[in-house]
Amino acid sequence: GTKRSMGDFVKIAENERDDAVEVPVEKNGTLLVSNVAAQFPGACGLRYRPLDAQSYRGVRLVDGVLHPPGDGWKSCVFFVNYPRGWPLIADLRSQEKRKLEESDVVTATKLLCTEPRISDLVVLGLPFSTNEEELKDYFGAFGTVVLSQVKNDPVTGKSKGFGFVRFADYESQLKALSMRHMIGGRWCDVKLPQSKVAQSLCGQDVIIKGSSVHLATAEPKNAAMRRQSRLATTQNTLAGLGAALGIGMNAAATPTSAGGFNFTPAMVAAMTQALQTGNWGNVGMGGGQRQGPEASPPNAYGRPPGNWRGRSRT
DNA sequence: GTTGAGCGTT
User: Fold this and answer.
1) Of A41, A97, A223, A232, which one's alpha carbon is 20 to 30 angstroms from that of A13?
2) What is the Cα–Cα distance from A24 to A263, expressed in whole angstroms?
3) pTM as predicted
């Protein structure tokens, strides 16, 4: 018969109380998130409780592949991790199956891009005399600053008058984004970096309609591709969303794959515009058919107001 | 002020 090892399955449970489900392991000993998501729709990772540790420990996840801990998969039962924003995603999953439409792509894009997420913030208009310590001190009034950068001219070493900050928590970020700032006698603007809108979606494992998808930029094979990296990022993001939505319309157990889905030109246009501008106000609702009750409420997306939580829908 | 709209060597 077929030769099999003891590492063929991993015991996975929703939580400490529920029964475990055995999920198959790949031949190389890894575990695909898509296989976990087939049994636990929405799963984005695993954690476990090592014998020698008081806390949970996360399972290493690289490009949608879960790597076994040192003791192997048989050492204990693993527990499912779900992403932030899962309630909203669950809303999508509960929708009736129907033909994929432009509005689905737009909804998924909004879902990904508007999920509360800590990001570097660009600070424009800094006095040329402001250094990184002063920048950190100023924004420390809004919360813990974990990154402070002032960009300098590589030749002269002088400040270029802008920089970046990053907060430890999202609430501080919202506060800083909600106002203008007087720093060193100049009014400065704090914004989400536009240049990294599309990139911020990449390198993440996201769940759409019950399927796990890793959004990644293909490794540039030559200089020409490197110059086109921004376009490649957009196209790979589109491919990732397409795979997710396509699988969502068929069967949750289908292995995640980037192929086999075709966007309409309208979908590509909507996604591209959304990723480039970060402005959702006019995306997707112009020429497309308006959907019914599953369409998003006006306030759920777009630029979040200060008290927005992203989970307050009932 | 060599300088005031913008977007990051890591």
Assistant:
1) A97
2) 32
3) 0.47
Split at pLDDT 50, 70, 90, the class of A110 is low
Q: Which two tokens stand for residue A79?
A: 């527990």
The amino acid occupying position A148 is: S
Among all strands, which nt has the closest C1' to A151 (CA)?
B8
Other beta carbons within 10 Å of A189: 14
Query: What is the Cα A114 distance to its own chain's centre?
Result: 10
How does pLDDT run across A155-189, given as a tens digit for each residue?
899 999 999 999 998 889 989 998 899 999 999 99
Residue corresponding to tokens 């960009």 = A151
Question: Residue A150 CA to nucleotide B3 C1', Å?
Answer: 16
Average pLDDT over chain A, rounded to whole?
A: 69
DSSP reduced 3-state for A244: helix
The token pair at A133 is 């310590």
Q: Is the CB of A124 under 7 A from strand B?
A: yes
pLDDT at residue A171 in the model: 87
Classified as helix, coil or strand, A134 is: helix
What are the residues whose beta carbons fall under 8 Å from the beta carbon of A200, sequence distance 6 or more? A113, A117, A119
**Mean pLDDT within A286-298:** 26
- Chain B nucleotides close to protein (CB under 7 A) are 1-10
> How does DSSP assign A149-210, residue by residue?
EEEE-TTT--EEEEEEEEESSHHHHHHHHTS-EEETTEEEEEE--GGGTTGGGTTEEEEETT
Residues 6+ apart with CB under 8 A from A37: A43, A44, A207, A210, A211, A212, A252, A256
Q: CA(A152)–C1'(B10) in Å?
A: 13
A193 touches strand B (CB under 7 A): yes
